[in-house]
Design a protein that fits this description.
Largest sheet: 3 strands, antiparallel
Number of helices: 0
Strand content: 25-35%
Order of helices and strands: EEEEEEEEEEE
Distance between the termini: 54 Å
Length: 111
């Protein structure tokens, strides 16, 4: 049987493994194993496979309906200074005339 690490918060030896993390029943602390910390950052790519970075300028490649509105973000709309985030939408940005938006990388191309 493999030995489990002590809790980094309270040093309790009564830790257990729950899926991909460790849990301490005494203090409630949860943490991932040391092996999981070496996971690489996610690489964001546009519709053409170009790597995107924070601050890039992109163009929308197809008309996108705006949820909760009758507006449409038209194809060819330029979006400046994007911010990449993890989640179901990869890009946080502000589009002139629309305000703050979230976009998926599959609907943009890098300029």
């Amino acid at each position: 049987m493999a030995t489990l690490p002590n809790c980094p918060a309270c040093q309790s030896e009564y830790t257990y493994e729950d899926r991909n993390q460790f849990v301490c029943p005494e203090c409630g602390n949860e943490w991932t194993s040391a092996d999981d910390t070496e996971v690489e950052d996610k690489v964001f790519k546009d519709a053409n496979g170009n790597i995107l970075n924070d601050g890039d300028t992109v163009t929308v490649i197809k008309d996108l309906k705006v949820k909760g509105s009758s507006s449409v973000v038209k194809q060819g709309t330029k979006v400046k200074n994007i911010r990449l985030v993890d989640g179901d939408h990869d890009i946080d940005c502000k589009i002139e005339g629309f305000g703050a938006m979230q976009l998926k990388t599959e609907f943009v191309k890098k300029l």
